Each structure stands twice: as structure tokens, then as C-alpha cells.
Amino acid sequence: MALPPTIPTSFVPKQRVEPSRRTGTGTNLFLLASAVVVVISVVTAGGIFGYEKFLESVRDSKSAKLTEAEASINRDTVEDFIRLRDRFASTRTLLDQHVALSQFFVVLEEATVQNVQFDSLRVSVGDDRVAKIDMAGSARSFNALAVESAVFAGEKHIRRAIFSGISTKEDGSVSFTLSAELDPRLVVTNGENIVAPSSVQTSPVPAPSAPISTSTAPLRTSPPPSSATTTQP
Question: Residue 228 and residue 66: Cα distance in Å, rounded?
Fold first, then answer.
């Protein structure tokens, strides 16, 4: 007996069964990050490669310009510049080693008393700028020489002054030699170390016989003239 069409012949549902979908969110993010890193790496490598080529082109360009400049330089001009540099260096060395005794002469003028004169001067300067002097001179008398010795002893810019070789001449004057050391500041180099002479006050030394004038005065370059004798007809 046939069943009516309204009666179902099976209990299996007729609905369409769709498979369930699982979304892989973590995997997608990892792939995206990997892709970004790869792109950045490729871009960076390309930039480094391009910058390297740029630097090579700049180097080659500058090398070419340098070669061209070297080729255009005259060899004689270079040698002239080298000689000029050597001259400047020699001039600077000479200036650094230059010794000027102008300050010493100022001090000597102030320290030379009346009736004393110096006839010769020899100066030697060491590496430490200490100058040693050897002088020869004459004094009108022992009294004048004693005063001169006292003045040199009180001059702070002249050290270890030693009077020696004292002898009497036929005219009664006294010859002597003097050796001493100078303050390095008196040996002026390049206009430095300018000093003023010391103000030395000395008291007259009593003469062994007749007193004579011994006041300090500027440097005398010649002995005072002897007094003339006037004869009456």
C-alpha cells in the first residue's frame, strides 16, 4: 500500500549541513609581520647599496679632480713654497733665540759711578737665558772702585759680581776686571721680560787718604779730563 505523499518516509533532516569555519587570526598576524620585515629589509638593503654607489661615485669624482689639480701644479712653484716655509721656520727660530741687552745697558748706566769707566765687555748666554759678563775697566782711585763694588752688590739684577785683577797704573788710576751673572729678565727675547733698573742707594766709602767725589752718575765713557796747570809769565 502506497503511503500518501504528506507522510515523510525518512527521519533524516533535509536541511543543508554547512561545515564549520575556524579563523586563524594568529597565523595571519605572523605572516603580516614577516612580510613587513622582509619589505623593510629589502628597502634597507637597496638603500645601503644605493648609498654605497653614491659614495663610490663621489670618491671617483674627487679623485679625478685631485689628479687634475696635481697635474696642473707647477713643480717649481711647490719647491718655492717649501723654501719659503723653511725660511719662515728659520726666522722664527732666530727670533726665539734672539738676545737683546738693551735693558742690561740701562742697568749698567745707572750702576756705574763717577770716576769709573768700563773699557771692554764680553757676554755669553746659556740655554737657561742666564748671561755671564766679563768686563774690564778702570777707576780713578781705590775709593771709587770700592763704591762701584758696593753699587754692584746692591743691584738685584746683577748677581755674583766679582772684582779681580786689581792693579795700580802709573797715573794713580786702578784697573780691574769684573765677572758677574745677569738676571735672565735682562736678556730680553721677543720684547718680553722688560725690567726696570733697581734704585740703588749707596753711602760714600771713606777714602784711605784725600776724599774724592763718589756720587752715582750716568755711565762715563772716558776718564774725566785732568786739571790744567796755568803758568804766569
Answer: 87
Helical segments of the chain, H only: 25-72, 75-96, 102-111, 142-154
Asked if residues 148 and 112 have their Cβ atoms less than 8 Å apart, the reply is yes
Look up residue 17 and give its three cell numbers. 549541513
Q: Rounded distance, CA 33 to CA 188, Å?
A: 80
Q: Which residue has the cell 679632480?
A: 65
Distances (CA, A) of 207 to 23, 60, 77, 86, 151: 131, 93, 74, 61, 16
Residue 200: helix, strand or coil by DSSP? coil
How many residues in the chain? 233
Evaluate whether 166 touches 178 at the Cβ level (below 8 Å): no
pLDDT tens for each residue of the chain, 233 residues long: 555 666 655 555 555 555 555 555 667 888 888 888 888 998 999 899 989 999 999 999 999 888 888 888 788 888 888 999 999 998 887 776 677 788 888 888 899 998 999 999 998 887 777 789 999 999 999 999 999 999 999 988 888 999 999 999 888 899 999 999 988 877 766 545 445 545 444 434 343 333 333 333 333 433 443 333 333 33
Rounded CA-CA distance 13/15 in Å is 6
